[in-house]
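Sequence in, structure out.
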Amino acid sequence: MSSLVAGPSLVEAYLEHIRNTCLVGTDGELADYIPELARVDPTKFGLSLALHDGYVYSIADADVGFTIQSVSKPLTYALALTHKGFELVDERIGVEPSGEAFNEISVDSKRRPRNPMINAGAILSASMLLEVEPDVDRAFAELLEFYSACAGRQLVLDSDVYNSEMRSGARNRAIAYMLQSFGVLQASPEAAIDLYFRQCSLIVTTDDLAVIGGTLANGGVNPRTGRRAVGQAVVQRVLSVMTTCGMYDGAGDWVTTVGLPAKSGVGGGIMAVLPGQLGIGVYSPLLDEHGNSVRGVAACKRLSADLGLHMFNVARESRVTVRSFHTAAELDIDTDRPDTDRTDTERRYLRGKRDRIRIFELQGDLTFSGTESVLRRLRATAQEFEVAILDMTRVDHVDEVSRSMFVGASRNLKGAQRSAVIVDPDGVVVRRSAHRSEPGPGLEYVVTTMHEALIRAEDFLLKLAVEEG
């Protein structure tokens, strides 16, 4: 019916902007030490966000399948913790950053892999599943069921990549046999390597990575299915290790600039998590010297900076951004004053139309997550009103991207034969100097009082009545 309902959302338009920015340049190399990965299209780029309520935004190549590779490591570690318990796993796998490349033959003074995010730790995590179920096929079936529960759909194996890794995985075999010689790998090294290569060869999309991230963000409950996939205590441990070790020897730069628990893979994928709010999935196969996606890292840095996603961001955002929601008919505010210059016919018409003015009272510090939920609600209910009034009286701060999103929503509504009026007494959307100057596009209906907002809303209703005859 309208561009507001049918067209691309403001969030998707923003994600496209991120994509266009990150596609500039040709830095990075494909993971050519795995023959099948050397054949992928280096120009691909997908980006997805999964919100805490299961809504997923996707752009570009978000539906392109690629192998999960090392993004699988947190999930197998979670399954090992679930089966073996924290104490037994901690005796054999450390949780300290290695400061080394992902495929280093690295152990600590106790001859344990330094953490489960490097290959040595991941192979040992996989081997622990074989201690519960020695048959590789049955162990993989359980692993696949768990991964699929986190993704919210059935995942499948890429047989070509699996076979390619089995033929070319000499270094990982060396790691497995080294761990066996140290007495920490108790299953068959060949079986452990087989299971590890299978987990790395599962096909995912950025939507899948975002939903898996959303499952971790929700404390183990899949945001799409509503089903618990993993225990909350396990999620806390996994996110902690992802924060310090998930991006290999680039973890320090990642934590300071992006500030999200994350895991990368040499297939070009990155999964990032903002606990309690959202999961991010990115795919771009060109890798930097750490084995992380060049464009994926750039995209996550932009998202974190623009949307205030850093986990140490101190914004006081409320999970309930919309404090209340009602129609103008429910308000005891009289707009029938002489200075409004209404005719008797117009007054009667407006009294019958006050239920077509919807008022959203907002609260808290509005960063991306809260703003997105408000604007998505506007899109979903656009046919129920002619005018939306966004009352910012109880909002203390709106970040720059959210400010642009609110302005963009005003433009979208106008193009859909709807209107938005923003009540902004403290200048959180439009700075005070802007109120005294000529308003820019999308800011025509930013006012300072609810009374003025209702008058503007009624003016729009009268104009609409004239246009409709």
